[in-house]
Amino acid sequence: MKQWIFIGIAVLLISPTDGGENWPSWRGENQSGVTRAQAPLSLEGSLSWKTALPGRGCSTPIVWGEQIIITTEMGLEDGVIAYDWSGTEQWRTTIGTLRSGRGKRVGSGANSSPVTDGKTVFAYFKSGNFAALDFDGNVIWKVNLEEKYGEDKLWWDKGTSPVLAGGNVVVAIMQTEGDSFLISLDKKTGKEVWKTRRDYETAPESGDAYTSPQIVDIDGVETIVCWGANHLTGHNAKNGKLLWEVGGFNPENEKYWRVIASAVISDNVAVVPYARGDSIAGIQLGDKAKNERWLWKREELGSDSSTPIAANGKVIVIKDSGPTRGRVTCLDIRKGETLWESHLPKSAKIFYSSPVLANDNLYVVREDGNIFTARVTDSGLSDVREYPLLETVIASPTVVNGKLLVRSDQHLYCFAN
């Protein structure tokens, strides 16, 4: 059986993880949701510990060394909390007054996942509070982006997570009714380095984006790739300058085509879910794209909330909602052709969490807390297993050091070999 061992993604600026020791951002070491770390395929009897969380949050835990760090609602304030690998709390810090989530079932004031460079942790909240902390929980600086740059006009809760680019920390704000822009802040001071407007005219709500940018090296230029407002754009990480843009995702200017699932990138191809989960496309990046960027599109499959996995010339798409939810499709990333298709057990519940591929083990979590594990083969999924948490899960899982972390609306769970 040929394994999906992650051997590197050509367009990524940073090198692949060497064993899954850290998970520094929402989608891991390379923002791909892919790691070479091992974790249990069967979760029955593998629960190492669970710890009660102080409040609601939908952000993914990040890991650096011996610390597991999450953002969370903490009373009436935005909070950051750290645990060790026994599930024992190491510290907690409040950042400022929280703004509660509008989506009480699927949202929170702490949807955005933190990011770290191994020296500093950066945390962002629905309130606009944005802070840098050290690994003892001390606040280095904090700023409220709404107070400084304008009101949040998204119809629902923030979803974008901050990223590290150009030596700074970057946040993408994309909305229909308010200002849309990328903002780069100095990691040491929180001062503005550059700010680039990203305004597109759209139908109602179709300019709202809950996606996170990808950072890739394209033809020797560190590029911030953003998906939202019916456009995929590339920006120079040093100064925010718009390098290129791709439209055509909403030719009829449909209303309410907000985007939640982020684009993923591998092999100089961006895979873009659109049309509220009904379509997906492959967009060529780099010099080869000068004449034609659209490589392929599939209008009969896609993902609305759950970001796909892309690596090693393939992309895995979870159909997260609708009549065919639970369908897992593997495509050739350059041709868009189906390589195989499998199905997870059917339920009325949907998938908000994004999947993780750990070596050749796939981890998918449904909103009702059912964790699905499966082995990925050349012909589809095998050894599909199901483990119920009986708690709501919106956050994406984390796999590091042979352990699986899952954050529900009540607890942080750790499964280990």
Structure description:
With 417 residues, this protein is mainly beta. It has one domain (34-416): 7 Propeller (Methylamine Dehydrogenase, Chain H). The chain has one helix spanning 145-149, and strands at 34-35, 47-52, 62-64, 67-74, 77-83, 89-97, 115-116, 121-124, 129-133, 139-144, 163-165, 168-173, 181-185, 192-197, 214-218, 221-228, 231-236, 242-246, 264-266, 269-274, 279-284, 294-298, 309-311, 314-318, 327-332, 338-343, 356-358, 361-365, 370-377, 380-388, 398-400, 403-407, 411-416.
State the low-pLDDT regions, or none. Answer: 1-19
**Architecture, CATH level 2?**
7 Propeller
What portion of the residues fall into strands of 2 or more residues? 35-45%
Termini separation comes to 22 Å
State the CATH superfamily name: YVTN repeat-like/Quinoprotein amine dehydrogenase
Given the helix and strand composition, which structural class is it? mainly beta
Overall geometry comes to: globular
CATH domain class name: Mainly Beta
Number of helices: 1
Radius of gyration: 19 Å
Overall pLDDT = 93
Q: Tell me the helix content.
A: under 10%
CATH fold annotation:
Methylamine Dehydrogenase, Chain H
Number of strands: 33
Spatial strand arrangement across the major sheet: 1-27-28-29-30
Largest sheet: 5 strands, mixed
Overall domain count = 1
